Amino acid sequence: MSTLSLLFIFLNVLFSRVAGLWPIPRSLSTGNTPVKLSPTFSIQFASDFAQGTAGIPQDLLEAIERTEMYLHNDTFERLVVGRGKTDAKVLPTAIQVHSLRLTLTEKARLRSIAEEATSTIDEKMQEGIESYALKVPEFGGGRDGGVAMLQANTSLGLLRGLQTFGQMWYAYEGTKYLLNAPIEIEDGPAFPYRGFSFDTSRNFYPIADILRTLDAMSWVKLNILYWHIIDSQSFPLEVEAFPELSAKGAYSSEEVYSLKDVDTIVKYANARGIDVIMVELDSPGHTTAVSFAHPEHVACANKSPWSRYASEPPAGQLRIASNQTVAFVKDMFGSVAKRLPGRMMSSGGDEVNLACWEEDEETSEELRAKNQTIAEALNVFVEEVQGELKENGKTPFIKSDMILTHNVPVTNDTVAVVWQSSEDAVRMAQRGIRFIHQPSNFFYLDCRGGEWLGNDVLGNSWCDPFKTWQRAYSFDPHANLTTEETRLVLGGQMPLWSEQSSGENLDSIVWPRLGAGAEVFWTGEVLPDEVNATSGGNAFLRLNELRYRLVDRNVRAIALQPKWCVLRPGECDLN
């Protein structure tokens, strides 16, 4: 038998053993017994779960209904030559699973999924808040014959287990089955923060696109939507205290996220175990759109040449030395913060341009009157804005260049977003500041379409090359950090900046690459078989399965390989 054939057999055995789960659980054991779901399968609570269904959170009941719907509607067949026909012979005699029984641990606290999802970052760090244990036995009859078991400490943990259970099954001619019982899983996240940063300002995304993205995020156990909702180009957010900002700053009246829209999106996310950090409200840079309604608060608005005053067009930054502007910004943040149940919020802070303030007459006059430098005014501005967030019960987030480039002092409860380079993580850790990873050299999903600025004959992008899923998957959150410094790493997120994306191409840009970040921050450095995660292992096989499952659920994820290769694992590998 050839070496290639042996490799093909090995990969198929390995693939079936891990059941194509994404992210792969942190502890997983499997067997080789086929089982199938009963036609009357249901998800039930153990008799002692709560005193009647009145004590069970409504969003947990809805999560169960969604899981049952997916199990009924999914048509995904196993990715092998012949697809489901390959397994047809074993299905008639496979033992049936008639229910999944949900139980709580002795230490359980029964709150709604939304309450758990919107907890503080410190609460998210508590061990067990998202953990679960899942068992699918090879059934031999008895009192619990045909019953799978899911146990967790919280409603959120039960949700994570339900998401895993929904990935286990293949379809063939109406039958849902798996081949590798008994399955035992002990699982929980390596990091409390696992996010997607989504820019809906540069181009507007319909609500349906955002909700579909939230669904897909929940399937891979991402728990943060870092919503970059305004930028220089448009102000599509309705702010209760300042409705004129979106009335004059949005691209059109149809391209606005109303108060009702925001409530809908946040509620939808929270019920799926996802917290929403409403950001950016970027400040003090990237704020030209504020000038459409309030030109008095913005320096160098639309000034030419834009490249002298901003990182991209149009130019414009908040007048940080103006007391009136600081008060306006605090009121704006406060108005938005009061509507959000989440306990984290960001003031932005990236890519400020000193020339904008240096050449702004109003800013210069304010600085002279206060005997301040730009650096001193910036420190005061950040302190005031971050103080407003804390007064509204939010943990403040800030972009790393405010700290590393401009040396703005921040309090110990601040979380930095390290974005310019993965190497900056070490510099941030040396300052003792908690942070999340968002390195442009590993995670930027938009580095793909060439230059979007006109009159550039080469068409190269600043963040070339394309960030492949393999590149993102190779990221080590603890690289070059001491053991003590690793405690400062809260997790990370992959961003989509939307200069060249919109609802029409959203899915294919984001999926399945975003899954790479989801597994990096859920599973951590070591897979259940003790293969180092950054080496790739069987990730290609499992990510292909995730992609096909996403498509089956109407997410237009891009193909990773020709289907011929997908059905023949290993035969398209480099020799």
From TrEMBL:
SUPFAM superfamilies: (Trans)glycosidases (SSF51445), beta-N-acetylhexosaminidase-like domain (SSF55545). One of its GO terms (cellular component) is membrane. Residues 1-20 form the signal peptide. Residues 21-168 form the Beta-hexosaminidase eukaryotic type N-terminal domain. Its EC number is 3.2.1.52. It catalyses: Hydrolysis of terminal non-reducing N-acetyl-D-hexosamine residues in N-acetyl-beta-D-hexosaminides. InterPro entries: Beta_hexosaminidase_sua/sub (IPR025705), GH (IPR017853), Glyco_hydro_20_cat (IPR015883), Hex-like_dom2 (IPR029018), HEX_eukaryotic_N (IPR029019). Residues 191-524 form the Glycoside hydrolase family 20 catalytic domain. It is an enzyme of class 3 (hydrolase). GO terms for biological process: carbohydrate metabolic process; glycosaminoglycan metabolic process. GO terms for molecular function: beta-N-acetylhexosaminidase activity. The keyword Chloroplast does not apply. It holds the Pfam family Glyco_hydro_20. The active site is at E351 (proton donor). Keywords: Glycoprotein, Glycosidase, Hydrolase, Signal. Belongs to the glycosyl hydrolase 20 family. This is Beta-hexosaminidase. The lineage of its organism: Eukaryota, Fungi, Dikarya, Basidiomycota, Agaricomycotina.
